[in-house]
Amino acid sequence: YDDAYARICGTLVWTCALKTPHDTSVLEEGRRYSEEAIRSFRRSDDKVRQYQYRAELEAGCGQITEALHFLELGIGIQLASDQADAYEDRDPFFWYHLSKILVMTLEQGDEEQKQLAVTVFRRALPAWKKYHKRIQMPGHPDIITFTHMAICYAALGNLDPAIELVKKAFESAPKLDSAILSAIGLTEHAVY
After folding, report:
1. What is the rounded distance in angstroms from the CA atom of residue 143 to the CA atom of residue 167?
2. Cα–Cα nearest to 124, from 176, 173, 71, 167
3. Residue 41: helix, strand or coil by DSSP?
4. Which of 136, 162, 171, 174 could form a disulfide with 153 if both were Cys (CB 3.0 to 4.6 A apart)?
5. What's the pLDDT at 48?
6. Quick one: CA dihedral 98, 11, 188, 165, positive or negative?
């Protein structure tokens, strides 16, 4: 099985997602690529990644309901569920996508969606703290996740942990081989 076509479609979805929120005209095109990638990939972990990309595309275009739906598919958690243990033992990209969509929901969602984002953040926080303590040498995407989590903390009025995470992100960035990628990631949510 050659999944080159699926990988190309997935890359095009991510490209469309990166163009948002400044260019929301890419939504329909990105959705078409997303459906093709999801249909074409055979492995479930490849499909999961495509759901995560789709969540970012939808959120970047202000489609928060759709973004939350695809986030649930991409992380395997029903966000309205109260199962705090579902957030345990997750990988860096889980935290990256979850935190990014939470930030975008806090910024663009309606009141009910914002309340859901706050509830999810609070529910996931104990698992995030455990994960955060285990990080020896922050890299990609952890540094970007720090900034997302800082924004979530700040949205709840918890400025001390927010400031600490931003400091940690900036202190860690020079340690990466790809400092340019880190700088882009750190400024990713400057518009928020």
Report:
1. 10
2. 71
3. coil
4. 162
5. 95
6. positive
